[in-house]
Design brief:
Structural class: mainly beta
Strand content: 35-45%
Number of strands: 32
Number of domains: 3
Helix content: 10-25%
Strand order of the largest sheet: 1-4
């Protein structure tokens, strides 16, 4: 009995001791937590209103010149507040809206900071035309420096939001056996349409039409002991290039016969000029079995009409029909340099029996 009472007293004292200590400990712990919260509290955040420096120059973006039913929204710079840097947002296509036009975003300076005025659709007053009905402005003068291995694709006018907007040119890496064809605007009825440019194979032969007229008159004169070799169009890298006239020393007993463009095998080829003996008197070509073996039995077609302008110092040698295989082929006329005391006689077809024979023209 005495033992049980002693045990109860001991247990009660231990519990009372614990109850007395716990509140004090908990109170001290709560006090430390409050102080810690006050020490770790962050200072108030200051929000920057806008960037202090101007945005970088607008980037050049390459995109289609036009997309029916859409308007190109130019890219812009965006200010990242946390990183304190400019970030580029690319442009995009927006579907057109009747009676509206797109106003691009811009950065305005207000005081000592820059503020973004975002882009938006605004009243346009009229419905924006998908295709321009006015001619594009003249191309801007772009003078890029030469860059080895590259070709300059010139700038162009693009139709956006009912207005002409300039798209600067850019460099294209050169391609072997190809050339860059510039795009262009062409009038189609009551509107203008854009013909896209691009790379194309360089044609080996010029198109089957008459070479363009000389761009200018050659002012060279035949000095004593010299003769003037006429200028000509040369086909270089897929286009006609004018080669000016030049002087050459007189070749005694000979006269110079200029080259000419002739149609052969379905395309144009250039026959080089050559010196001929004065005794020949004509420009009759040598016998060609492929042309002269079988003479035509039917009358050649009438000569085509050739409209030419007068050219000082030259005589026009009229074109003629030529028999090739089983049909006539038209050979365009050409210019002949005038010769002192000589007259150019055009070639002609003559009927001999049941055949037709061509008599070559020449100087006489």
């Amino acid at each position: 009995m005495r033992f049980r009472f002693h045990r109860l007293v001991t247990t009660g004292l231990a519990a009372a001791t614990l109850l007395g200590v716990a509140p004090s400990a908990f109170a001290q712990q709560g006090t430390r937590t409050d102080r810690s919260d006050r020490r770790d509290r962050s200072p108030p955040i200051v929000i920057e209103a806008g960037p202090r420096d101007a945005p970088p120059p607008t980037r050049e973006e390459r995109h289609e010149a036009r997309r029916d039913g859409y308007v190109w929204v130019s890219g812009r710079w965006d200010w990242q507040r946390r990183e304190h840097k400019w970030d580029w947002i690319p442009g995009r296509w927006e579907r057109e809206r009747t009676g509206k036009r797109w106003r691009d975003a811009r950065w305005d300076r207000r005081g000592d900071e820059w503020v973004l005025v975002d882009g938006d659709w605004i009243d346009g007053g009229v419905t924006v035309s998908l295709q321009p009905n006015v001619a594009p402005p003249p191309l801007r003068d772009e003078r890029p420096a030469q860059r080895a291995g590259f070709v300059w694709a010139r700038g162009k006018w693009a139709w956006q939001n009912g207005n002409w907007q300039w798209t600067p040119g850019h460099w294209e890496r050169a391609r072997a056996q190809q050339r860059w064809n510039e795009g262009r605007w062409e009038r189609r009825g009551d509107h203008w349409e854009w013909i896209e440019g691009g790379w194309a194979e360089i044609p080996k032969y010029p198109p089957l039409d008459q070479p363009p007229p000389p761009p200018q008159r050659d002012d060279l004169r035949a000095d004593v002991g010299f003769v003037v070799l006429p200028g000509r169009w040369a086909w270089i890298n897929g286009e006609y290039v004018w080669q000016r006239a030049q002087r050459s020393r007189v070749n005694p007993g000979k006269h110079y016969v200029p080259g000419e463009w002739v149609e052969r095998d379905g395309h144009w080829i250039w026959t080089n000029g050559a010196w001929q003996d004065d005794s020949e008197g004509t420009r009759s070509p040598p016998f060609r079995p492929d042309r002269d073996r079988d003479r035509p039995r039917r009358q050649p077609p009438a000569p085509r009409e050739e409209r030419i302008e007068r050219r000082d110092g030259y005589v026009w040698a009229r074109g003629h029909q030529e028999w090739r295989g089983n049909d006539y082929v038209w050979i365009p006329g050409h210019w002949e340099p005038t010769r002192a005391r000589q007259t150019w006689n055009d070639g002609r077809w003559e009927q001999r029996g049941n055949e037709w024979v061509y008599v070559e023209g020449g100087w006489r």
